[in-house]
Amino acid sequence: MALPDNASCTLPGEEPPFPEIIELNVGGQVYITRYATVTSVPDSLLWEMFSRKNIKPLARDTKGRFFVDRDGFLFRYILDYMRDQQLVLPDHFPERSRLQREAEYFNLPELVKLLTPKISKQNSIGDDACQSDPEESSPNADTARNIASLGAIACASITQGPGSESRRAGFITIGYRGSYTLGRDSQTDAKFRRVARIMVCGKTSLAKEVFGDTLNESRDPDRPPERYTSRYYLKFTFLEQAFDKLADSGFHMVACNSTGTCAFAHDQTDDKIWTSYTEYVFYRE
Q: What residue stretches are annotated with the BTB domain (predicted)?
């Protein structure tokens, strides 16, 4: 006879200690799942939290949801794994090491194994030509590591040389919204240069290459490198700083445009408040 899903935590004839539907607040992200899901992996952190063995009260947020202070975006992959014990990640997933750390925190050893990089003793055909052979245990291990480091630097200088041959062509568009006041004498206020956010549109790999750590990817974190996005924006608000980064990467401006819309007019001064959107298109051959 098959046992119920929560038989491991509930004795016969007793009601389960938690409702069938569990609401979780993980780092500010809300998840709704079944009690059987959070207790599906024995000895995991969630299994211990929601089992009868746990005598400590669980933390809750202001709405009564169970609170876990971890990465809310990566937790969706943890929850997916707990549903069917299979790991399915997007192509070109950039957060694999961080997800492995989350799996270790939630005490999911099988998931940790699936996320651990597999290192073969011999290079495969698809490996990079500059990849060094794995070092063998010897008294000169430090010397071998130093030589391997120098080889990696040499490979990087060859594949990413100062020439423009290794740079891929493409477009990057940056845009911003602003506002300005137009009075009777057609004099404008300089508020239109108060940039609240500089948005970035283009191929993901090009945007990351140009702007690096100054690129905010929080609104589109799982976008593969070869896909396009219009949801990135910069962590700074100086247009000239964005222009400098584009110029340093070999881009030059090929087009720009701006539109303005009258939002409202002041009753006493007849000044009109205009909102604008401006875009700059950059291209690298």
A: 20-123
